[in-house]
Design a protein that fits this description.
Elements: H1 2-17, E1 32-34, E2 40-43, E3 51-52, H2 63-72, H3 84-95, H4 106-115, H5 122-138, H6 141-151, E4 158-159, H7 161-169, H8 178-186, H9 200-215, H10 243-252, E5 258-260, H11 265-282, E6 289-296, E7 301-306, H12 334-343, E8 352-355, E9 374-377, H13 378-383, H14 387-396, H15 402-408, H16 417-420, H17 433-444, E10 448-449, E11 464-465, H18 469-480, H19 486-490, E12 499-505, E13 511-518, E14 521-528, H20 540-558, E15 574-579, E16 593-598, E17 611-617, E18 633-639, H21 643-651, E19 678-681, E20 687-691, E21 700-705, E22 712-717, E23 720-726, E24 731-733, E25 739-747, E26 752-762
Parallel strand pairs: 1-5, 3-4, 20-26
Antiparallel strand pairs: 1-2, 6-7, 6-14, 8-9, 10-11, 12-13, 13-14, 15-16, 17-18, 19-21, 21-24, 22-23, 22-25, 25-26
Helix pairs in contact: 2-8, 4-5, 4-6, 8-9, 11-20, 12-14, 12-18
Length: about 775
């Protein structure tokens, strides 16, 4: 007897502890994607084309499993997999013609589904019973019930309570009300006739409610709710929202059943409306597409992502996503050149830079408008997007330079550095919109590069420092002073909300960008055409900026507290006075001062030499020679601009007063703190090739910029004197033959510059 007992116990216990796969191990699942507020964005089909969303028993409103057991199999917790009394009753009723009814338990129904059994015959029914007993031996009641609620039929290609809850009621199974739970409990018994659109559903639910109230009398308070019509949806009403963003999530996380994203559906819809409306207005000028990406810098979560103006428009390749596509960023990378220059002690925001014709080896860039402005502050150069000052700064950067910085920031698929050269400054490389917003978020996050987040469950990372806190703050403060376009002001985007923004236009007018920081957000806007058709309308300030400020204004209206989220000034920064015209520390002769941010021990410290006091002979108007006779001289302050700057002022119709020459009887001028000549031609690092048959007829231009205090420039090739030119003029030189030459330019104050030049002869 004891042996039989032990054998029976072993027969029950051993199958339970024996290793076995979960009941749903090989059952494909749909994937449900939600926004951060639990709004459903998309429910995908499973691998076998079913809407089936697997979830644990704990993820369901407890009323639903209880209601299913009460309606389908009230002895579920006690039988061994089949209920003899139910089978006999069903067989008798069917055989006597009273009505056809089933006697299957929940376990038997699960067995039929799992093993694809035909239970309309007696052998099939017997096989179903055996399989049900087998399931009871190997799995617990909760495991069986969990599998059943995930596989129960709900009409059409909808299976399981999780998918049915989302499709029919638009909510998770854990959020179901009692009325909704009772509705879902009665459908699987006859999904064809009890579909949400069928009248039989209400009667079945009412009968179940009566049974429920016998066990839960307090539920009678909700009886009035059951008299209301069953409000349900269908698979046709399933949302298909934020398609590009959700598509990226599904590719990145194919094995998960549920994805709660960082997206804010309200902001997503807001941005989609604006983009669609804006592009409708721009189609008349050939601009058919736009995209936008919004992230929260506090946790780096993507809050809205619109990959194209219309996902379903094949004419604009709407299913292509500009969020991840690699495109030329135009001038949107310039702020990082200035940030690196600040960190390397080359500039501060009021440093005066030179916007004039310059050559960098064989590279001779131009500005977007083909003109030169002359001297302007770093802040003005950045906000007016002048190419020459940015390239000049980039050429002076030590490690890291812009290429090193972008590599450290994780910009992918970059070619070798020599492929770009200094053209990288002007958008010669390619970045994605996601990479671009990550870079601008680094400025808002005090110089720390942090990874973008797409899922709520992902923890924000601490980041990697690529810029100092001071440089990040100073660049954002520079960008804040960027004047908004007239179109943005006209659209009502002029608010008290600080916006730190920059535009970009790709070479060939294929991409128009605007990227900026406001409140806790970074927003990037792109306008263009996916077929790369050039269009002169695709200019960042004209095409992308108005849309950018439309979005900023709309988001600010929806969240009016954004203006209170101001940048925190780093403790190591201080404000100092500089000479407004030169950007250097003021000397005694500087007539106008300005303030700038300054990093002690890092920002450049140099006393301005632009304004110099000269002693002028009253009779001749020339610089007097000491000793100065009382009553015969006067003192005046002159601006000492270099010759190229004087030319630009003259071309602009704003000629500057040039300092006078020295009196002839004066000894050679001494160094007055002026600027040494800078050779601009021949170009550095360029080999000049002359034709053998015409060597004597060919010449090379010699040119140098000189200080305003110099009048003439003397040119030498080695020890050979070549000639002299007035300030700002060019000398032509005919080399005697091939070779390496050291050219020197010496001004009449004794200051000089030299450059090595190689001459070759071609047959």
């Amino acid at each position: 007897m004891l042996g039989l007992t032990l054998f029976a116990a072993a027969l029950i216990v051993l199958p339970r502890i024996f290793p076995k796969p979960p009941l749903l191990a090989h059952t494909p699942s749909s994937i449900a994607v939600y926004d951060a507020r639990q709004h459903l964005l998309r429910l995908t089909l499973s691998g076998d084309e079913q809407y089936r969303l697997l979830l644990p028993l704990s993820g369901v409103n407890p009323a639903l499993p209880e209601a299913i057991s009460l309606y389908e199999d009230r002895w579920f917790r006690w039988h061994p997999g089949f209920n003899p009394w139910s089978l006999l009753r069903a067989g008798f009723s069917t055989a006597t013609g009273q009505r056809r009814m089933g006697g299957s338990t929940i376990t038997m129904q699960l067995a039929r589904h799992l093993y694809h059994l035909d239970t309309r015959t007696i052998p099939g029914k017997m096989q179903q019973i055996i399989r049900a007993v087998q399931l009871e031996l190997f799995y617990t009641k909760d495991e069986i019930l969990e599998a059943y609620i995930n596989l129960a039929p709900y009409g059409g290609n909808v299976e399981g309570v999780a998918a049915a809850s989302l499709i029919y009621f638009g909510k998770r199974a854990e959020k179901l009300s009692l009325e909704e739970a009772l509705t879902l409990a009665v459908i699987p018994q006859n999904p064809l006739h009890r579909a949400p659109s069928q009248p039989e559903l209400t009667g079945a639910r009412d009968r179940l409610f009566s049974q429920w109230c016998q066990i839960h009398p307090e539920a009678t308070r909700e009886a009035d709710l059951l008299h209301l019509p069953v409000q349900v949806r269908s698979t046709k009403n399933l949302p298909f929202l934020a398609p590009h963003f959700v598509g990226e999530l599904l590719v990145a996380h194919p094995a998960q059943h549920e994805l709660v994203s960082t997206l804010d559906l309200r902001l997503q819809r807001l941005m989609e409306r604006h983009l669609h409306s804006y592009i409708e207005r721009q189609k008349r000028i050939g601009v058919s597409n736009a995209a936008a990406l919004l992230i929260d810098t506090r946790d780096m979560g993507i809050k809205a992502a619109v990959g194209s103006a219309d996902f379903f428009d094949a004419a604009i390749s709407g299913q292509v996503s500009a969020l991840t596509a690699k495109r030329s960023p135009g001038s949107t990378l310039k702020p990082f050149i200035y940030a690196l220059a600040i960190d390397q002690g080359l500039i501060h925001p009021m440093t005066v830079l030179k916007d004039s014709s310059q050559s960098f080896g064989s590279y001779t860039p131009e500005n977007f408008d083909g003109r030169f402005i002359g001297p302007l502050t770093a802040t003005e150069a950045l906000n007016r997007s002048r190419n020459l000052p940015a390239i000049a700064l980039a050429s002076r950067l030590d490690k890291p330079n812009l290429y090193d910085f972008l590599q450290a920031a994780g910009v992918s698929h970059m070619a070798p550095e020599n492929h770009y050269g200094l053209a990288l400054v002007l958008g010669g490389g390619e970045v994605s919109m996601e990479e671009l917003v990550q870079l601008y978020a680094m400025l808002a996050n005090h110089g720390n590069l942090r990874q973008l987040r797409t899922l709520e469950q992902e923890k924000p990372d601490a980041g990697t420092r690529l810029l100092s806190d001071e440089a990040a703050f100073m660049v954002l403060d520079m960008l804040r002073q960027n004047q908004r376009p007239d179109m943005a002001i006209a659209s009502g985007a002029l608010t008290n909300l600080p916006v730190h923004w920059k535009t970009g236009t790709s070479n060939g007018f294929r991409d128009a960008w605007t990227v900026g920081v406001f409140g806790p957000y970074v927003l990037a806007v792109w306008a263009g055409n996916f077929d790369n058709t050039p269009n002169p309308a695709l200019v960042g300030i004209q095409m992308a900026a108005p849309l950018f400020f439309e979005l900023v204004n709309s988001i600010n209206s929806a969240q009016p507290n954004l203006h209170s989220m101001l940048l925190q000034t780093p403790s190591n920064l201080m404000r100092v006075d500089v000479c407004a015209a030169s950007g250097d520390l003021p000397n005694a002769d500087c007539p106008q001062l300005a303030q700038t941010w300054f990093i002690p021990g890092k920002s450049p410290i140099r006393v301005s030499t632009l304004h110099r006091k000269l002693v002028i002979d009253k009779a001749t108007g020339l610089i007097a020679c000491p000793p100065y006779l009382p009553g015969h001289t006067r003192t005046e302050v002159f601006e000492f601009w270099t010759s190229d700057m004087l030319d630009i002022f003259r071309q602009a119709g704003l000629p500057r007063r040039v300092p006078p020459a020295h009196m002839p009887r004066c000894a050679s001028a001494t160094d007055d703190g002026g600027i040494a000549p800078q050779i601009t031609s021949p170009l550095r690092g360029v080999t000049y090739t002359l034709r053998l048959s015409r060597v004597e007829e060919q010449s090379i231009s010699l040119q140098a910029t000189v200080d305003a205090g110099a009048s003439e420039v003397y040119w030498f090739a080695g020890e050979q004197y070549l000639g002299k030119t007035p300030r700002g003029k060019t000398l032509t030189w005919s080399p005697s033959g091939p070779g390496h030459y050291v050219l020197r330019a010496v001004d009449d104050t004794g200051r000089s510059d030299s450059r090595e030049t190689t001459i070759s002869i071609a047959q």
